[in-house]
Design goal:
There is one protein chain. The protein has about 290 residues and is mainly alpha-helical. The chain has one domain. It is built from 13 helices and two strands, in the order H-H-H-H-E-E-H-H-H-H-H-H-H-H-H. Helix 4 packs across helix 5 and helix 5 runs parallel beside helix 8. The longest helix is centred in the first third of the chain and has 27 residues. The radius of gyration is 20 Å and the shape is globular.
Length: about 290
């Protein structure tokens, strides 16, 4: 197991080496952001590894537990929720096991969003020593903490895909929606992680606010119900939830749900890039005062 001190030292060394040629590693636009992240892959991976290890004895045992936990969560969904919410979904009757996996597909996307925001909100604060270094690219911190949340999401997604194969509900012609949903959702996650991490040093209470946002979005999104079961005017409001469309896209591909229109998908992707641009602009402006408040 690597120590936090040695990891932080390695991160500083690697980041200072990899950002050579940059006049200011903390001034960037959305395009420059991805170039900066590519140049700092190694320190990002070090932070992700440290976050995944946590208090576990080794990396392997941590991954095993991460892989088992979603299976344990599916059991109560399968045994209880099917009877509570009814046996129908999008106008068709489904079995208990399939219902459990459909709900789990929605919850894994929602959990990914909230876990990423929760981790990112404290990413700058708990790494104050590195943030004070003017040559250190601070934006890699929230992105690295997003990477920590990505590992359990991918494992949960693999379990969901296995479940869809077991129930023979996969739509081959719609499988392209899965990677597209992940890519577009990543724009929102990166943007929101950067934004919330830049605000948190000034408003420390935002760390406690994130769970309440998660509870609100849990019901203000198509997680326990399908989007097409909601009246049309309410559908547009629910789509303001950044996890709503990715959930619908995953369910359309893996469980035969309604495929969203291409216009809606393009609008969602465009909005994600605009939000990313706003987030990077805010981070550039706000980060100048980090040293004063940390």
């Amino acid at each position: 197991m690597i120590s936090k001190f040695n990891t932080e030292k390695s991160i500083k060394q690697e980041s200072s080496t990899l950002i050579e040629g940059w006049s200011d590693p903390n001034r960037f636009n959305p395009f420059g952001l991805f170039m900066l992240l590519r140049k700092n892959v190694y320190p990002i991976l070090l932070l992700v590894r440290l976050g995944i290890l946590g208090n576990s004895m080794n990396f392997f045992s941590s991954l095993v537990w991460t892989a088992i936990s979603p299976v344990l969560l599916i059991v109560p969904y399968t045994l209880v929720v099917h009877d509570l919410l009814g046996k129908g979904w999008s106008g068709k009757t489904i079995g208990r096991g399939e219902h459990g996996f459909i709900l789990f597909a929605g919850l894994l996307v929602h959990s990914f969003l909230i876990d990423a925001l929760s981790r990112s909100s404290s990413s700058i604060i708990i790494n104050a020593g590195m943030v004070r270094k003017t040559s250190f690219p601070r934006v890699i911190l929230p992105v690295s903490y997003l990477g920590i949340s990505t590992v359990p999401f991918l494992l949960n997604l693999a379990v969901t895909i296995i479940g869809s194969l077991a129930f023979n509900t996969v739509r081959i012609e719609a499988l392209w929606l899965v990677p597209l949903a992940i890519i577009m959702f990543s724009f929102y996650l990166i943007a929101l992680s950067i934004l919330i991490s830049s605000i948190a040093p000034y408003f420390r209470n935002i760390v406690q606010i994130v769970p309440f946002i998660g509870a609100f979005l849990l019901f203000a999104g198509p997680i326990f119900y399908s989007l097409d079961s909601v009246p049309k005017p309410w559908q547009y409001l629910l789509l303001l939830n950044p996890s709503a469309l990715p959930i619908e896209m995953l369910r359309a591909a893996l469980f035969g749900g309604v495929i969203p229109g291409m216009g809606l998908i393009l609008l969602y992707g465009s909005a994600g890039f605009i939000i990313l641009h706003i987030s990077t602009w805010c981070f550039n402006k706000i980060q100048e005062g980090f040293s004063d408040v940390l």
